[in-house]
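Quick one, T. Sequence first:
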Amino acid sequence: REPWRDAAILDSHIYISSFHLVVVDITDSSHPLLTTELHLVQLYESITIYGNYLFSVATSEYSRGEIRVWDLSNPDVPKEVYYQYSWDWPEFRNMVIAGQYAYLGDNKGAVVMDISDPASPRQVATWNFGIQVVIDQYAYTGSQIWDISDPTKPVAVRSDSPLPPLYYNFYHGPYAVVAGDFIYLPQGNDL
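Structure tokens:
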């Protein structure tokens, strides 16, 4: 079995991505139950829960960026409600969801999608910079901070950001964790 790339939890279910979408019911935490394993053609690098939907992104030999959206109304059996790919997009190695927008991309660029209707995301912008973290109306790229209150027209507000340069692991995208007022980023093997 391929190594897992990402995981997300909704209520009593864990959703795990790789070349499969694996669903594990953890209602009884001492006896987790594998309920579903869907084979996916591509390696899905990043998954995120938004409401009752699971968003997954991939990069493949068939396209530079792919997005799938799964309806989790029946948590044991995700139902795919949206799929799109494009050669025009940057590689999707990371995904950040903030408000009604999903930011998909890598360290070279990002695609911004309006997900107010999760079953029908709509591309609203393409950026020539990648992102690590979105907090409120700001996107942090490592070397710059962007005001994205209007995601279709990002404005650089600081070019000497205290964050280290965007660090990417080949398989997993940028590692960034937000806790309270702090952003934790790795720098090589340091945090």
